[in-house]
Amino acid sequence: MMKVLSRLHFLKRVCPLLVVLLVACSNGEREDALRSFEVGEGLALETLKHAADQGGVDIVFSAEVVKGVQTRAIEGTLPPEQAFLRMLEDSPLTVVRHRESGVYLIQRRLPEPQGESIQAPN
């Protein structure tokens, strides 16, 4: 009887840890995993969704932010972040990946500073 109880005790302690480990491993996909992409040029509102579907990733953007923005076509096998960056070249948009969740965020690029640079006095 004692052996049975100690095995049950062991399983009660170990099983939850195994479940956590399995979930962590299944969600811990590498951010540089290669995916196959074939997305034509077009409006960002549509093309970004297609790229996210093909890349098997989650993407977040505001329709207002991407409104009227054209993206480049992409084709080939590459990491999702590189696919988004190529699509968004020469556009006012950029992509950022949230480290913990793995979600990609599309946002407007910050404007380049204009004017003269100011140097601190010595």
UniProtKB/TrEMBL annotation:
Residue stretches making up the Secretin/TonB short N-terminal domain: 57-109
Keyword entries, A-Z: Cell outer membrane, Membrane, Transport
Regions annotated as coiled coil: none
This protein's GO CC annotations: outer membrane
Keyword Transport recorded: yes
Name under which the protein is recorded: STN domain-containing protein
Organism encoding this protein: Pelagicoccus mobilis
